[in-house]
Amino acid sequence: MAETGQSSNPRKRLREDPKAYMNHSTLYFDDGNIILSCGSTLFRVHRSLLSKHSPIFRERFQPPGEDVKPEVLRGFPHVILDDTSEDMEALLNIIYDGLRVDVPQLTVENWPLISSILRVCTKYKIERPRTEITQRIRDEWPSTLPLHTAKMDALALNQKRTAQLIVQNGEAVVNPDYDPDAVDEELIVNPAVVISLLRECDLGTKELLAPLFYALSKTTWQFGGPAVGHHIASLSQADTERLIVGVERLRTEHAALVVQLPTFDAGHDPVCGVRFKVAWCHIAAGFLRSHAGARQPIEDWKSVAQTLRGDGRLMTTYHLCPQCAEMVLGCMDQRREKLWNSLGTWFEV
């Protein structure tokens, strides 16, 4: 209950008592010509600069009608905003720094600032920072298979560099590739919070969401238990259902492609046809025994094909001719690409 004689409206109390306000330490400019207040924090800024970059600010700064008394504080127009002072600070810093988002890589350490910038830039319709942040999300979770493959290869290399010790001949030794500046995998942003932010900012396109759902599916072993809160708590109910259904569809399709024998050219050597079937059955058995394949099929198809290309086993162990060996490897590449191109369908984004 409010004290006797005082207004119950905190914003009104602040207007009645200018001493309750506090100037922002860096964004209260002596030559500013308009004052913004967020809670008790004041920002004295330049009307023309904010109006130039934001149609929302431009509209808010229009003089009120003749029958409306304008808000004035310290002799300047006063606009009261419902944003937090932290969000407004992030937005104004972006505007005064030339709309640059000076963050080369997304990590859990800078994600709170990045998400704050994206939210307020969406609210005030400032497009350039939105575009830059969206591009960083694309860079982190690429939408094309070649770029995704390159990203996964880079992460694998980075994992080697973040390990200070490795095991050789049963003993722990110093990793010669250790790089103290390499980004630890634990600093990678959880895809679930990125999905939620994109939805909030009306950026939920198939191109952005499909690789994020796939990345999230790789870290989701099962649904139920304490791990759920860590991985998917930030998702909406609808997106949680999309993830559950999508994981089931993706893993089912992966298994179906593994056991489906590729079409063999009937005009080729019949002996090769028998060897072709034997080779594929052994490959399929290895796939189905692999827990990693169920969780990250895109990577597993690449890994198996890469191993077969490197060791020449299709010709030395299964005695396939070069043409049939390439046919097997080509089929694996095609099925991997089919899985990737179907992610948007499986996760319904």
From TrEMBL:
SMART domains: BTB. Residues 32-98 form the BTB domain. SUPFAM superfamilies: POZ domain. This is BTB domain-containing protein. It comes from Cerrena zonata.
